[in-house]
Amino acid sequence: MARGAAPVEQSDFEKQRLANIAERDALLKKLTQEAQQAGLYSKPPSAGTQNGQKRSARRKEPSAKRVKKEVEVAPRRTSSRLAGIQPDSEAAKQKAEEEYEKAKEVEKQKRQRVTGDLNFADGSSLIGTDVLLKGVARPYERTFDEDDIRETTDKDLKTLRQKMSSLELWNAWEPNRIKITPERIYSMSFHPNPTKPIVFAGDKMGNLGIVDASQTRKAVKQEEDEDEDDDDQDPEITTIKPHTRTISAMHTHPSKPETLYTASYDSSIRATDLQKGVAVEIYGPGNKEEDEPVSGVDIAASDPNVVYFTTLNGAFGRYDLRQDPSQADLYQLSDKKIGGFSLNPVAPHYVATASLDRFMRLWDLRKITQKLPTLVGEHESRLSVSHAAFNTAGQVATTSYDDTIKVHSFGAKNNKTPFAALESMNLWKPGFQLDEAAMKPEVIIRHNNQTGRWTTILKPQWQMYPEDNIQKLVVGNMNRFVDIYSADGTQLAQLGGEGVTAVPAVAVFHPTRDWVVGGTASGKMCLWM
């Protein structure tokens, strides 16, 4: 207000508003006093405070010890009127005090430490038993070593273990120097040549790397040795790019050793002529915009003209190379992706598939009904099944995220002959079906399969035509080894060595020789021979 100015007269409305405010404040003050007299009042926290205490403007020093104050518990209010207690009486005060003490004791009991055993399971496991039983991966820590071989009492098994464990790393170069592909390896295979170890590897971006492991390091001249380190020389590696996306699987047919078939997430299958250096697309959807990522490829030994494949969309395909790609047969075998499959190498009308819906399924292609091959049987795992691989004895090996390797013999007992499963299959007529019991695995191996996001999924691979007629499979180990097992689940070897610094997740056997190769997420290769 300016000096000397006359005071402004309040309007009737303003006078009434101020009177209402004064009346409300008086009422609140009276109610507060009554509540205090009854013992039912606790001062509410003021604005800008926490737990009724003002926040300090200065930050406490890190060394200052914080003391946690016990929070005062306000009693739960009950109706004194319904209880027949007069307000502002001694009885009302006593009742309020008793309720307050009771609430305080209850809160104290909740915070009290409990001793003794606690049972939360109610008869069932809190998490899956398979998760409890799996080993946690500890880098470089062996789970199978020379002590296991030394303590083996079976002479034949001991000899086999010594033989497989004697495989040594290819020492021409250290593994971290053999970068066979630019990106993460997703698939690998050996050329079937039994005299020269030739390795193929497909990576995440569609690159195909080829290494001839019979090469040796070239001799370094004396005068060059004074100036340069001979370690500067790298192995000769051929790299081509037949696909635009992940190479998921590859196959070489015995009758066409010059051709490598590759399947890719770019929805195509290509045949690469290794002599001419030409990769021909032999299958792909008619519409280039159609996305049908191919997850596996196989060809029956008895017929090199028919290609079988699976897709991430859950389809199984059969395509005759002499026909137009539009005439390929597609069967929707799963609502979710099929991660891997294989044909029975001796009876190729039987197909084993592994899918994200947790099932390993066995199909018979001799009888197609309702646009589907006959489902011989299925086995459900606790989590998704990554791959299903047939061996020449008619058995199927799978890996699953339930941390198991399972071997299925489909009810056949292998105590008489290792080919009991195959002999049993030969008696099945078209349309034959197995019951649930026969589909259960005869062998279950506990194995850590938790690869995570940056490591390629672990898949078991059999030695297809072993020279010693002993069925053996190989699989990557999260402890940065490669494990070898026999068909009965006995571990034969655990391959490692100096320079293996990453998980060789993609591991395969040579079809006949005792050669094993593993590929890592950095595109590097480990070869044991």
Describe what you observe in this structure.
The chain is α+β, with helices and mostly antiparallel strands and 529 residues long. The strands form eight sheets. The chain has a four-stranded antiparallel β-sheet, with no helix packed on it. The chain has a four-stranded antiparallel β-sheet with strand order 7-8-9-10, with no helix packed on it. A four-stranded antiparallel β-sheet has the order 11-12-13-14, with no helix packed on it. The chain is 16% helix and 29% strand. The chain has a single domain, classed as YVTN repeat-like/Quinoprotein amine dehydrogenase (Methylamine Dehydrogenase, Chain H).
What keyword list fits this structure?
single chain; alpha+beta; Methylamine Dehydrogenase, Chain H; four-stranded antiparallel sheet; 8 helices
Summarize the structure.
The chain contains eight helices and 29 strands. With 529 residues, it is α+β, with helices and mostly antiparallel strands. It has a four-stranded antiparallel beta sheet, with no helix packed on it. Strands 7-8-9-10 form a four-stranded antiparallel beta sheet, with no helix packed on it.
Blueprint of the fold:
Layout lengths: L11 H27 L10 E2 L2 E2 L35 H22 L17 H5 L12 H5 L4 H11 L19 E6 L7 E6 L4 E5 L9 H6 L9 E4 L6 E5 L7 E6 L4 E5 L4 E6 L10 E6 L6 E6 L3 E6 L8 E4 L5 E6 L6 E6 L3 E11 L2 E9 L4 E6 L5 E5 L3 E5 L11 H6 L10 H4 L3 E4 L14 E2 L9 E6 L3 E6 L4 E5 L10 E4 L6 E4 L5 E4 L1
Antiparallel strand pairs: 1-2, 3-4, 4-5, 5-6, 7-8, 8-9, 9-10, 11-12, 12-13, 13-14, 15-16, 16-17, 17-18, 19-20, 20-21, 21-22, 23-24, 24-25, 25-26, 27-28, 28-29
